[in-house]
Amino acid sequence: MNNATAAGENIHVLRKVQGKDQSWLSREMGISASYLRKLEHGERPVTPQIAAAAARALRVRTARIWGQPFTAPVEHSQLLDDLREALRRHTLPKEDTPPLGELAAGLREAADLRSATRYVELLRILPRLLGQATSTAMDAGGDAVAWGQVADLYGCAYAVAHRMGEPDLADMIVSRQAWASRQSWNPVAEAATAWNEAGTFQSAGQYDDGLSIVERAISAFEQAGGSGPEYIVTLGSLHLRGIVLASRHRDQNATDNHLRHAKRLVDELGAGGDVLRHNLTFGQGNTALYELAAHIELDAPDRAATMADPLLRTPPAGLAPSRVGRLAIDAARASLAINKVQDAERHLKQAFDVAPQMAELHPMSREVLRVLVVMHQRSKPDLVAMAKRAGLAE
After folding, report:
1. pLDDT tens sequence for the chain (394 residues)
2. Are 123 and 145 within 8 A, CB to CB?
3. How many CA atoms lie within 13 A of 79 on its CB side?
4. Is the residue at 117 inside a domain?
5. How many CB atoms lie within 10 A of CB 304?
6. 190 domain-assigned
7. What is the full DSSP assignment across 85-102?
8. What residues does 276 pair with on adjacent strands?
9. How far is CA 148 from the centre of its chain?
10. In this structure, are 177 and 83 located in the same domain?
């Protein structure tokens, strides 16, 4: 990845371009001028709530604050263009229907690459695989399973676009996923689409609207009824999305409500580790991860740090690298917030080890890393190496 400006720098530049001073912007954002100064100088990490507040005040998208889409190698740009072409041709796939065994193998590979956070490799196979799955579904008419597979692939595509900082592409993918879900007449596919749709509002910093999407999806899914692991994983995942949206919206009651429902569903799921269905992971481990993140968003990083160490020492069964990597990033964020700098660096290293592509791209990984580099004035080789991988240093 090539060098990219950091969120604090982007806030500074946008403020200057618009002729605003720090006093005005800090008032609009609801923070102190001294805190804004530290954000702009890279001495404090920009959080999702800060990015959303800055975007509202400066009348830009949150993607502009994060510096997204990040400058990527030429190959990545070409692969993203291939995916855009496949999305454009969603009703006119170029690919023929493949043998069932070939398609099944491709679907498994896509799910595995997504779980392993190997986004570039996933991007290489997605356009062709989407075309093949869509051709298969069209030939099968109204077959719910075939259209559900198309919807699941769009879920994989959303993960790539979201993580690579392509919000417009992510929005387009969700609309295509909604189209495929409607063909399936499958409440699970529609709920998984709502999970991603709420994610687009989350990325945009519109947490209250995202909560509305989640609550509407939960109501519709519960009315449809169901039972068994697939039902529990889907409903539980919607509540997990609700936890992060509510906590970022600073709504303690809504956060507690979604967490309470998630824990009840964990009990129903039973022992045996987290379960993956339709690109959604749910169980005791992932619920703990979301609870930990909520503590950070609700200004209790000490509670998050206390939870983090035992979870990272022995990651819960069933958690894919994507989830363990996210756990490590949140642990680093919590440690930095309570001035445990060495712990923050240690956790960030674990994120780079477990889920390198995620760690290079995740906004909070980049923000924690940027602050650590500034604090150490580039004197620590390990930090500099991670910063180079993330495109934050030459």
Report:
1. 445 678 999 999 999 999 999 999 999 999 999 999 999 999 999 999 999 999 999 999 999 999 877 655 667 889 999 999 999 999 999 999 999 899 999 999 999 999 999 999 999 999 999 999 999 999 998 899 999 999 999 999 999 999 988 999 999 999 999 999 999 889 999 999 999 999 999 999 999 999 999 999 999 999 999 999 999 999 999 999 999 999 999 999 999 999 999 999 999 998 888 999 988 999 999 999 999 999 999 999 999 999 999 999 999 888 889 999 999 999 999 999 999 999 999 999 999 999 999 999 899 999 999 999 888 766 788 888 898 888 777 6
2. no
3. 18
4. yes
5. 23
6. no
7. HHHHTTTS-SSPPPPHHH
8. 281
9. 22
10. yes
Parent domain of 309: 300-394
Smallest CA-to-CA distance from 188 within 133, 247, 233, 121 is with 233
From 185, 214, 239, the end of a domain falls on 185
pTM equals: 0.91
Q: Both 308 and 246 in a single domain?
A: no
- Residue linked to tokens 């923050």: 344
Tokens found for residue 285 = 């481990």
User: DSSP labels for 39-72?
Assistant: HHTTSSPPPHHHHHHHHHHHTS-HHHHHTPSPP-
Q: Please say which residue of 66, 81, 113 terminates a domain.
A: 66
Claim to verify: residue 208 and residue 107 sit in the same structural domain: no
283 and 304 in a single domain? The answer is no
